[in-house]
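Long-time lurker. I teach an intro course on protein structure, and each term I like to show students one example going from raw sequence to a predicted 3D structure in token notation. This year I'd like something fresh instead of my usual example. Would anyone be willing to generate the tokens for the chain below so I can use it in lecture? Attribution to the forum is fine with me.
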Amino acid sequence: MKAVLFQYPEKAAFGRVIPKSRIYEHSRPGNALRNQFVKQIDKIIWQYKLAPETINIPARSGVIEIQIFRVELKTAEMDGNVLRCIDKAIPHPVFYELVYDGRIKMTAAYKRPSDAGGSKWIAESYFELPWVAENVKRPELPVALNMAGLYEQMLGACLPWPKRKGENLKSHVERLVHIQRKEIEADKLKARLRKERQFNRKVEINAELRARQTEIDKLSA
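-- Reply from a regular --
Happy to contribute to a lecture. Here you go:
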């Protein structure tokens, strides 16, 4: 997968450190999740704010702003629940640039307003790009007519398979989440197959594995 990290306009630079305590105030994580914050995150920087006044394109379809957070890590691994906790505190789409040991990668969830209304946003499954050198050359932001279109293109750069013809962003993400689940099932079957000693059970597990792979192939075609 191609690693994409965008070059953001200087006018959109925000550059504010977000104290972990501010995230805790809005998301109210339990003690175990707070411990993960402390163990995994060194610093969260609100690096850029993409908005009509900073990039000169209008808001549309609920997307008023897009936030870019730089997260400086203490470890190469980051618990997805930590990202979800941050997203819960921010009522806008957020793209995370995770930084560790001279490397960087982008990750983001498909984020949408809650069906219940109000200011609450829901973060679905997370998608991430590979680690690359922090000084990698970055392309300019995609050209878009409005903030919703920009968000769709930016998130699309994080997704492992392209949209099908006529597929909207929500349906696209739902299909990819379905693929992720089938891949997890396939991995579990592979683990069972490695441990199984009985020939008949191996045949049965192999058949299940082939069925999962067929489903994955259809969903990703």
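Some talking points for your students: The chain has two domains: 10-159, 174-220. The CA atoms of residues 193 and 205 lie 6 Å apart.
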